[in-house]
Design brief:
Keywords: Membrane, Transmembrane, Transmembrane helix. This protein is α+β, with helices and mostly antiparallel strands and about 210 residues long. It is built from three helices and eight strands, in the order αβββββββααβ. It has two domains: about 15-55; about 55-205, no CATH class. It has a three-stranded antiparallel β-sheet. The chain is rod-shaped.
């Protein structure tokens, strides 16, 4: 009966173990580095996008030349509140030309990430942000022969009404499609400057 040959165990050299360990550490370190760099860059980009959109200043989206015709009347002179003096009435047609500015409050804009390269931007109510270059013209006057007895019409007060927020709402309603288009273009340009691959969705108040 022959006896089994003894098994010879080969011992892995220390340098080989050290080399394998070094390779594993290098691979793991490289993966961690690039993963951290990738996710860090993605987080940094998100911060840039949010900060670029959430500005505190007013954003003027549209400046438009406008004109309002305002008919003004002054009641006839009243004698002791008993009857009106015939021919003392006043009437004026006032025309106001001005450059109206429309836009939004930048601090009220909200942005929400919807995916890796997708964001939703919520646009607040459009607002009347003031005017430039106002010109007031009296188009016509219709005054009675005794109109000198009646207080003159305050055309400046009427002009200020034409430039007020209430009167401007009519223009906002008329310009709404254009204002929405301008808002989309404005924020798309900003975000595309950070990353042109980002897609935006817009939601408008009102």
């Amino acid at each position: 009966m022959t006896s089994a040959a003894p098994r010879v165990r080969t011992k892995t050299p220390f340098w080989a173990k050290a080399l394998v360990a070094l390779i594993l550490i290098t691979v793991i370190g490289a993966v961690a580095f690039f993963a951290g760099k990738f996710f860090g860059a993605d987080e940094e980009r998100t911060v840039q996008v949010v900060r670029s959109v959430e500005v505190e200043e007013q954003v003027i989206l549209l400046t438009a030349g406008l004109a309002d015709d305002i008919p003004l009347e002054r009641e006839a002179f009243s004698i002791f509140d008993l009857f009106d003096l015939p021919g003392s009435e006043r009437a004026t047609d006032l025309r106001v030309d001005f450059d109206g500015k429309f836009g939004i409050e930048g601090g009220e804009v909200q942005i929400e990430q919807r995916g890796e390269n997708a964001y939703l931007i919520r646009i607040p109510e459009f607002q009347y942000l003031g005017y430039d270059n106002p010109e007031f013209t009296v188009a016509s006057e219709r005054n009675g022969v005794l109109s000198w007895t009646t207080e003159e019409i305050d055309t400046l007060e009427a002009a200020e009404y034409a430039l007020s927020d209430d009167a401007a709402q009519r223009h906002i309603d008329g310009f709404r499609p254009l204002l929405e288009q301008q808002a989309e273009q404005f924020y798309t340009r900003i975000v595309s400057g950070i990353d042109p691959e980002i897609t935006l969705e817009f939601e408008f108040a009102g």
